[in-house]
Amino acid sequence: MSIIDKVILIWTSLPPLARGALVTLELTILLLGMGLVVGIFLALGQVYGSYPVSLFITCYERFFRSIPALVLLFLFFFGSSYFGFSLSPFLSAVLALGFRSSAYQSQIFRGAIQSIDEGQMMAARTLGMSKFQAIWNIILPQAFRLAIPPWSNEYSSVLKDTSLAYAVGVIELVREGRYIIVRTFEPMLIYIIVAIIYFFFTYAGNFILGFIEGKIAVPGYERKLGRRMGGSVER
Amino acid sequence: MSRDNNLLLTVDSLHKSYGNEIVLKGVSFELKRGETKVIIGPSGTGKTTLLRCINGLTKPDRGRIWLDGIEITDPKINMDSIRQNIGMVFQNFNLFTHLTALDNVRIGLIKVKKMPKKIATEIAMNMLEKVGLAEKAHFYPAQLSGGQQQRVSIARALAMDPKLILFDEPTSALDPELIGEVLQVMKNLAESGMTMLVVSHEMGFARSVCDEIIFLEGGVIVEQGPPEVMFNCPQNPRTREFLFKISELYGE
Amino acid sequence: MNFFELLREMVPHLMEGTLVTLQLTATSISVGFIIGIFLALGRLYGTKPVQAFCSGYIQFFRGTPLLVQLFIVYYGLPRYGIKLSSFAAALIGLGLNSAAYQAEYFRGAIQSIDEGQMMAARAVGMSKFQAVVNIIIPQALRIVIPSWSNELIYTLKYSSVAYMIGAPELMAQAKFIAAENFRYFEVFVVVAIIYLVIVVLVSRILDLIERKVRIPGLQFFQG
User: Fold this and answer.
1) Which residue would you say has higher pLDDT here, A81 or A100?
2) Dist CA C85 CA B154 (whole Å)
3) Which of A211-225, B34-48, B107-121 is most confident?
4) Domains of chain B
5) Rounded CA separation A16/B182 (Å)
6) Considering only alpha carbons, which residue of chain B is nearest residue A140?
7) Rg (chain C; Cα; Å)
8) Which residues in A lie closer than 8 A to residue C72 (C-beta atoms)?
9) Which domains does chain A have, with CATH numbers?
10) Which CATH number does the domain housing residue C48 bear?
């Protein structure tokens, strides 16, 4: 293919790739959201719950973090029909990766909550707040701010993991790319463009999260907070 | 207890141990309304533990506590509501880091006492004025000096209109030049009739403002009495020894 | 057939697959280790163009999905004359990917070493190169162990993606058996258990090694 043909190919590939990218983003946002809600509950359960509760959550975490994402996808996808109901590929991807993300996010939030000085809880109780009020009004707002840097990492990881949904038939970015390649036989070119699109979304997302972090930061505290929670939660 | 209507706090035979370490071995004393008492003693867990037993952050192993006629060590008591009547000021301030000074002071009023925001804000601003920090109302803790933070935390405790305020070494974490402003606020408070229980080694404060000094050592009250007696002619040799050590360190 | 008969049939195949998985993991993480160290050193001590290249490499491999990287190697290269077996392509893809992550861990470890160490080495007369090789790297290697353990587990899990380009590892064997018997869910439950067991075992072993190699008194950089 000549250069002109390549350029034309790139141009005509953009619409379907954009479609796929949209699906990828949908997947990402949905499962991050699911992971967030479940993850916070799990984190609270681990920090403030009774021993059997926190033991269960630890096992849950361990389970979802030790099994490869691809295996989990298959488990959900095939498992649904095994148990008698059918899940669309998209839904099984959201559930599988969503639960997986909840395990990682629960770790992030647990770390954030535990890194808050216990004096904060004490002061809240001395004002007469119940444990619940203290957690809701004092602990969680601070934990959220602390959690943003590792959460950005989680966003990147999840974004990349959505590519695995290809394996259960979801028509996201990679699959759209594959369809184009099957017709036009330019794998290197198309996959590099796909890679660039992922790259762009990773950066855009991190940029937005960084912006948000700046906006809700507590004046005077930025540097101290960032240092403490600097580490990434490994996948 | 029908003895004295003036009696605000009664502590009876408090015992507390952590594992093998016995921290409180039967501590008893009383506080009348409007009194200020200072607890002194070697550093260790006893004094802080005592304060925390009083506001329920720690449960004593044995012993009972009455606040204004109500036995607060009774397991059926809801400590959350009792704590609205007992204020606490901490050594490291424990201001809520994500809230402004004003928010810190009024959050208890809004969330716990369920006051409407307008009234809560009025009261909070009054309190901040009382401690001399009205202009810093919209500053965050990280933007305030240690002394300012501590004064805000006193305002926060005051805003709840408590019957009693507990102070846990309020000036120990402050740079020397900032101690004065906090002690001044505490003095004003004591003189205006607030009932205060203060753990501290600021002898100047103890001498000038408090009604009684309690010397706690080894988990028991070794001696207690008015400042003139304690400083000039303490009965117990250990008291004498401790006060001597303190005045050496703090130059009083 | 019932579950246990199925189990008996799958086990030999799955063990074969597990072996390949382990081989793939071990080789690609080693490849990643070597490339990673060079990348880290290049980023820290190299000339401007070298730094730019290393930085770009790391950002690319960390910012794009492993699946896409594997597809590029396996499907993209043949157009330029390089035809690779799926195992080889998986090896290269995983290795290059791992190198980027390992490079960042090394960089972090090296940067956490007090700069006094470098100064002292130069003061003794060592060249930059000698200082790096004799003083910095040995310390960095110890510091990096926790992160490296993480990377090993990560590679172990993500080797499963090699299935997508046809590498004959555990997932591929599982799919084969599942398809033959139409028992997808059960087969993958067993696969999940196998991964679980391997990951937990490897984590334990790594923990033990970490403890053995610790230098008394030296605080490790976490993460």
Assistant:
1) A100
2) 73
3) B107-121
4) 7-250 (3.40.50.300)
5) 68
6) B98
7) 21
8) 187-188, 191-192, 195
9) 3-228 (1.10.3720.10)
10) 1.10.3720.10
CA–CA separation, B134 vs B145, rounded Å? 15
Can you read off the two tokens belonging to residue B9? 């706090």
Q: Report if residue C102 sits inside a domain.
A: yes
> Does B84 contact A128 at a Cβ distance shorter than 8 Å?
yes
Residues A138, B141: C-beta atoms closer than 8 Å: no
Q: What pLDDT is recorded for position A233?
A: 41
Alpha carbon separation from B112 to B15, B70, B159 (Å, rounded): 31, 20, 12
Task: Nearest chain B residue to A136 by CA: give it.
Answer: B111
Tell the burial category of B229 from Cβ atoms under 10 Å away from its Cβ (0-12, 13-18, 19+).
middle
Q: Which two tokens stand for residue C135?
A: 């003083």
In a domain, C66, yes or no: yes
**C150 interfaces chain A, CB cutoff of 8 Å:** yes
Interface test with B, best of A121, A126, A135 (most B CBs within 10 A): A126
CA distance A67 to chain C (A): 6
**pLDDT tens digits for range A117-152:** 999 999 999 999 999 999 999 999 999 999 999 999
Residue range C21-69, pLDDT digits in tens: 999 999 999 999 999 999 999 998 889 999 999 999 999 999 999 999 9
Asked if ipTM goes beyond 0.90, one says no
Would you say residue C220 lies in a domain? no
Q: How far apart are the CA of A77 and the nearest CA of chain C, in angstroms?
A: 8
CB proximity under 8 Å: B 79-118 to A: 80-81, 83-84, 86-88, 90, 92-98, 107-108, 111-113
* Closest alpha carbon within chain A to B57: A122
**Residue at C152 is within a domain:** yes
Count of domains in chain C? 1
Q: Is the distance from CB of A86 to CB of A117 less than 8 angstroms? A: no
Among the partner-chain residues C68, C161, C163, the one whose CB lies closest to the CB of A195 is: C68
Asked if B touches C (at least 3 Cβ pairs < 8 angstroms), the answer reads no
**pLDDT given at position A9:** 87
Q: Is B153 on the interface with A (CB under 8 A)?
A: yes
Among the partner residues A74, A195, A202, nearest to C188 by beta-carbon distance? A74
Determine the structural domain holding residue C122 and report its residue range.
3-213
b/e burial code for range A129-161 (CB count within 10 A of at least 16 → b): bbeebbbebbbbebbbbbbbbbbbbbbbbbbbb
Q: Could you report the per-residue pLDDT of A36-87, keeping only the tens digit for each?
A: 999 999 999 999 999 999 999 999 999 999 999 999 999 999 988 888 888 8
